[in-house]
Design a protein that fits this description.
The complex is a heterodimer.
Chain A lengths: L7 E6 L3 H12 L6 E4 L8 E5 L1 H13 L3 E6 L2 H17 L1
Antiparallel strand pairs in A: 1-3, 1-4, 2-3
Chain B lengths: L14 H14 L4 E8 L5 E7 L8 E6 L6 H17 L4 H9 L1 E5 L4 H9 L52 H13 L2 E9 L3 E4 L11 H19 L4 E4 H4 L7 H7 L4 E7 L14 H21 L3
Helix pairs in contact in B: 1-2, 2-9, 3-9, 6-9
Classes of the chains: A alpha+beta, B alpha/beta.
Chain lengths: 94, 309
């Protein structure tokens, strides 16, 4: 089973078209293994991306160096999945 | 659960549990519900559609599918809830009763069974099918980029490793082909609603081109009514419009194909995430999500039943 410890989901706010393009550049960097939950489309629309733990620092540095604002939408994906599993197991046990 | 009354609709279930639920629902409601197998998945699992019908032959129909993207768990869970809702309300709710007097409803609860099983066993974040691509180690295609409508144009990836890989050719995914064959054979589907999550949108064609659909005015008005109904329950805010104008260019998608087949009332939903949880919507939100979505579904299907073409 694939685990997602340390994976974060970032909500990125691109202020203009240039920033949208920058995020698209990020999307093309396959080695980062980003999983876009909401794709970069146009300024004003949030971009949500799941970032594997090894890429978290690089992605944040990239965004900060281009003045692109973001917030951490999900701090640790695995902890949410654990909660989900726990609830499902509890239900089955009942 | 011993019956569909004691089934827990407020949690996520495995494919086996959902298929057991389907069988129970059919057994309990033989006068209304039947199960149709429309095909098999790449890995050989049966693909089931529930048919809700009060009788008659050659009737117009509405189609609802949930879970074509396997990780969007709130959609399959909502599909289960919709199925039960139809059986409990069809004699009580005058709108639903009137619809079922004229039309059948088809509901495919798990549209991508292989992907769904994979999300439960191996990778909760899996979105695509599980088909193999010759010459690539990467698995699966995006079944919402695999339809024969602008197939392979911008808004889909030709890279088998991408989450939006369009597949080898249009309908190459058996899960898509099964629906295509069913829709073509049936020939009288008048409303087609494909349900995704998240981001709270109600969308109509097109996704692959920026032209307005010929029925844009009517679809826009209907989308507005559906969203108004949805929002009335819990205040969940939705946007609506064409796919390309509202989110992004997406070629080879389901409802562009259904629209091209003459199904005027072709819509796709992106269900709620009001808590910044994305695809990991807490199970406590399943029932509220399904309840509000049901109001929008009824609005669309009711309109279709009153404006048969």
């Amino acid at each position: 089973t694939e685990i997602f410890v340390g994976h974060q989901v970032l909500r990125i706010s691109a202020a203009d078209e240039a920033q949208v393009q920058k995020v698209k550049e990020l999307e093309s960097l396959e080695h980062l293994q980003l999983d876009f939950w909401r794709d970069p489309v146009r300024p004003g629309l949030p971009i949500d991306v799941r970032v594997p733990f090894p890429s978290v620092q690089s992605v944040k540095v990239f965004l900060e160096s281009h003045d692109i604002s973001y917030e951490i939408m999900i701090e640790d994906v695995q902890s949410l999945l654990d909660e989900e599993q726990k609830q499902m197991s509890a239900l089955r046990a009942r | 659960a011993l019956t569909t009354d004691t089934f827990n609709y407020a949690t996520y279930h495995t494919l086996d549990e959902i298929y057991e639920f389907i069988d129970q629902l059919v057994t309990e409601n033989q006068h209304l519900v039947s199960k149709i197998q429309i095909g098999n998945t790449y890995e050989g699992r049966p693909i089931y559609v529930l048919k809700f019908s009060t009788g008659g032959t050659d009737r117009p129909a509405a189609w609802i599918d949930t879970g074509i993207h396997s990780r969007e768990w709130v959609t399959q869970a909502s599909g289960v809830w919709f199925a039960k809702k139809i059986t409990t309300d069809y004699e009580k709710d005058p709108t639903l009763k009137a619809i079922l007097e004229k039309m059948d409803i088809f509901l495919e609860i798990v549209t991508n069974p292989d992907g769904f099983v994979y999300t439960h066993k191996t990778n909760r974040m899996w979105r695509k099918t599980r088909s193999r691509t010759q010459g690539s180690l990467c698995v699966g295609a995006d079944p919402n980029r695999n339809w024969d409508a602008g197939f392979g144009l911008s808004g889909a990836s030709s890279n088998p490793c991408s989450d939006t890989y369009h597949g080898k050719s249009a309908n190459s995914e058996v899960e898509v082909k099964a629906i295509v064959d069913f829709v073509k054979t049936h020939g009288k589907i008048k409303a087609f609603i494909s349900i995704h999550s998240y981001s709270q949108l109600l969308l109509y064609p097109y996704g692959y081109k920026s032209d307005a659909v010929p029925n844009k005015e009517e679809l826009d008005k209907l989308a507005k009514s559906a969203v108004t109904a949805l929002t009335s329950l819990y205040g969940t805010k939705y946007k609506y419009g064409s796919i390309i104008d509202t989110i992004y260019q997406a070629s080879g998608n389901t409802i562009d194909w259904t629209y091209s087949q003459g199904i005027k009332y072709s819509f796709t939903f992106e269900l709620r995430d009001t808590g910044l949880r994305g695809f990991l919507l807490p199970a406590s939100q399943i029932i509220p999500t399904a309840e509000e979505t049901w109001l929008a579904l009824l609005t669309i299907i009711d309109h279709a039943s009153k404006n048969l073409y």
